[in-house]
Amino acid sequence: MPSAGYVYLVAIVKRTVQASPDQVFAVLADGWTYSDWVVGTVHIRDVDEHWPQVGAQLHHKAGPWPLSLHDSSTVLAMVPDRLLKLRAGLWPLGSAVVELVLDPLADGGTRITMKEDFEAGPLLFVRNKLNDLVLHRRNIESLRRLNDIVLRSSTKGAQT
Questions:
Q1: Which domains are delineated in the chain?
Q2: Are 92 and 121 in contact (CB under 8 A)?
């Protein structure tokens, strides 16, 4: 158990995307794209047919071969074009809760807020400021990649 007085820092990252919340959510709603933008996820093995409805799972592989781990992420909450909350599994190392909040901006863009915190397993108990910094940096890169995919997707949609 963590010692009394220790304050856990949740990795919170924000990014503004020049696309509407529905365009951003369209990418989040396509579970097959997660290995393209979630740093550390190297392969999506399967996506439940009803993704991203609550209870749906995407099955992924994380980490380099031969050390890669197979696990699943489960939707905990979802509001179309506004919120996606997941339990991301990485057993035997643990699991984290990841929340993506989409806020529409007056200029037509979207502010994405990504919060991630460990909730179970050994990673929860070894977490420290360094881990938070690494998680924070990883999520900055994940949102940069998500931005690129959203912009590429919205450009394709405009061309058709």
A1: 11-159 (3.30.530.20)
A2: yes
pTM: 0.83
- Strands laid side by side in the 110-120 sheet: 11-17, 110-120, 95-104, 83-89, 69-79, 57-62, 41-47
Sort 63 into a burial class: Cβ within 10 Å, 0-12 / 13-18 / 19+. middle
The one-digit pLDDT tens for each residue of the chain (160 residues) are 444 444 455 778 999 999 999 999 999 999 999 999 998 888 899 999 999 999 999 998 877 767 777 788 999 999 999 999 999 876 656 678 899 999 999 999 999 999 988 776 556 555 666 566 677 888 999 999 999 999 998 777 555 4
